[in-house]
Design brief:
Layout: E1 2-6, H1 13-23, E2 28-29, H2 32-42, H3 54-70, E3 76-79, H4 85-97, E4 102-108, H5 111-120, H6 128-153, E5 158-161, H7 167-178
Parallel strand pairs: 1-3, 1-4, 2-3, 4-5
């Protein structure tokens, strides 16, 4: 099972994916950002946003499918914001066409909540200039997310509204939506 975790930048996708990877037996994390870094190195300056590159979309779908196969059908967690309907359809359709089951979770929060989370984030500890650039990018993308959410995104996903929730509560809601896939917590590292 591939679990695509979507939502606005800064909503908590990576936090949820990391938590679920620890709690779902055999789960793995496949991060399309890493494919984006490779595409940027191979094709420098070709596209401002690596998601615009057809190679990124094809490779991302292939990564999810291959991880699903190699992981024996256990959960493959893919945290990635997809706000263009055509890109989401291209990737998700390629995954499904390859025979891999896909669940699309959408982490949502009120705009004020997302702005506050973005403002509090430190992406690059010790490098405030770089962190500030990331926060500015995320703020600029918030209206794009809001438009996508209102026009198509919420209708095609299982939505977890994270407004006012702790990361633990978000993970619990996601696990409830995922059902049997998420049954049974992995043992805690400290033996609890």
């Amino acid at each position: 099972m591939i679990v695509w975790i979507n939502g606005p930048f800064g909503v908590g996708k990576t936090t949820l994916a990391t938590t679920l990877r620890q709690e779902l037996p055999g789960a793995v994390l496949a991060d399309p950002e890493e494919i984006g870094a490779v595409v940027r190195r191979v094709f420098p300056g070709t596209y401002r946003d690596f998601q615009d590159h057809p190679a990124w979309r094809a490779l991302t779908a292939q990564l999810a499918v291959h991880c699903h196969r190699e992981n024996g059908g256990r959960p493959v967690l893919v945290p990635m914001t997809l706000l263009r309907r055509t890109y989401a359809a291209e990737i998700h359709d390629a995954v499904r066409t390859a025979g891999a089951p896909l669940r699309h979770l959408l982490l949502h929060a009120s705009p004020d909540t997302v702005r506050a989370r973005i403002g509090a984030a430190v992406e690059y500890p010790g490098d405030e200039v770089r962190s500030a650039k990331v926060r500015a990018f995320r703020r600029r993308q918030l209206p794009v997310y809001e438009e996508a959410y209102g026009s198509w995104l919420a209708a095609g996903a299982e939505v977890v509204d994270t407004t006012g929730l702790t990361p633990r509560q978000v993970a619990d809601r996601a696990r409830a939506l995922l059902g049997p896939l998420s049954a049974g917590r992995a043992p805690e590292a400290d033996g609890r």
